[in-house]
Specification:
Elements (H helix, E strand, L loop, with lengths): L1 H32 L2 E4 L4 E4 L2 E6 L4 E10 L4 E13 L4 E5 L7 E4 L10 E3 L4 E9 L7 E12 L6 E4 L4 E10 L9 E8 L3 E3 L3 E5 L4 E9 L8 E8 L4 E6 L9 E3 L2 E2 L12 E3 L5 E10 L6 E11 L1 H25 L2
Length: about 325
């Protein structure tokens, strides 16, 4: 055993310099040959985010956009695609292909649609989009989006990882010869979403429940509509509350759930127009009034619900039952 230990010590003393040198060479080779990887930061903004305009056949308009790069240098391609409404929450599907009959071009001398260009960090680029409506264009609505798509940028010395990013600005065009539009909508649904629905009582909630209200507006006209109005809550004790409907565009052949709030600002509600909270007791009425701008039709809708302290009654009943049992047992034990 001592002989083996001595041999090992002698081996390490003899070849220690060689082993250290080999390790240093290995580390150096690894450091100089590995590629540095970093994630590319993509942060584009475009303004304005929405264009909504009325135009006559044979006319041309020029729209100025400001595209800004707040991230790393990127390759950007600008193009125009069609839009089709989907779902009840204002979803849109992009339709790639020709934009007929509407014609789009960039008036920038150095830029063209569908051709990539470099945007450096903190660079701002003005995009001058010319929209031409040919003389024989049929009257109606045409929906498009101006897309700015990024492409990952790589250098020879570094490997850059990034995902493709797209930012768009929607364009809602109404083509009309006379300047008149067909604005027509109706209330497709206005009611609460009840926890219980009982005969002779209708929509029933517990007094502490949050009460979801849904309002769907459907576009039955030939042009885009933008509903506005209020939802009013009236209680049986004289309490009142008014909620302003947040204006949103509803494209033709589609419907949309409208949101409402006391401030008229956007909310995070995805599947309801309004979420009432508080302690409710008795019978309540909901009324909505909708219009689509000056000189347009006015729509009315009504709903109602009843609220009772159901949970409180159940708890009290259970407590009283326990007290009754305990008293009964106590009397049995105290009676001779």
């Amino acid at each position: 055993m001592k002989l083996e230990t001595c041999n090992l010590k002698h081996f390490f003393r003899k070849y220690s310099k060689f082993l250290v040198l080999s390790f240093m060479i290995y580390v150096s080779c690894f450091m100089f040959h590995v590629s540095f990887i970093h994630a590319q930061e993509i942060n584009l903004s475009v303004a304005p985010p929405l264009i909504k305009t009325i135009i006559k056949p044979g006319k041309t308009i020029l729209i100025g956009y400001k595209l800004q790069n707040l991230g790393d240098p990127v390759i950007v391609t600008t193009r125009v695609a069609g839009l089709i409404p989907i779902g009840n929450n204002g979803g849109l599907r992009i339709e790639n292909g020709p934009t007929d009959p509407i014609l789009f071009n960039l008036d920038n001398a150095e830029l063209k649609l569908n051709q990539p260009f470099l945007m450096k960090s903190a660079q701002q680029q003005q995009l001058l989009v010319r929209i031409k409506v040919p003389d024989q264009t049929p009257e109606g609505d045409y929906y498009y989006t101006l897309l700015n798509e990024t492409k990952p940028s790589q250098s020879d010395s570094e490997l850059s990882t990034s995902t493709k990013a797209t930012i768009g600005s929607n364009i809602l065009l109404t083509v009309t010869k006379s300047g008149k539009t067909d604005i027509n909508g109706k209330i497709a649904f206005f009611d609460v979403v009840p926890r219980f629905k009982l005969p002779f009582f209708g929509n029933v909630f517990d007094s502490s429940d949050k009460i979801p209200v849904r309002l769907f507006i459907v576009n039955v006209g030939h042009n885009v509509i933008t509903p506005e109005g209020t939802i009013n809550l009236i209680g049986n004790f004289g309490e009142k509350a008014t909620f302003n409907i947040i204006p949103k565009n509803i494209l033709i052949n589609s419907q949309r759930i409208m949101e409402a709030s006391t401030s008229g600002q956007m909310t995070d509600q995805a599947d309801s127009s309004l979420l009432l909270s508080g302690f409710f007791l008795g019978h309540y009425k909901l009324a909505t009034t909708i219009n689509f701008g000056p000189g347009t039709q006015t729509l009315f809708g009504q709903a109602s619900f009843i609220a009772f302290p159901i949970k409180l009654v159940i708890v009290l009943t259970f407590v009283l039952f326990i007290v009754f049992i305990l008293l009964k047992q106590y009397k049995k034990q105290t009676l001779p």
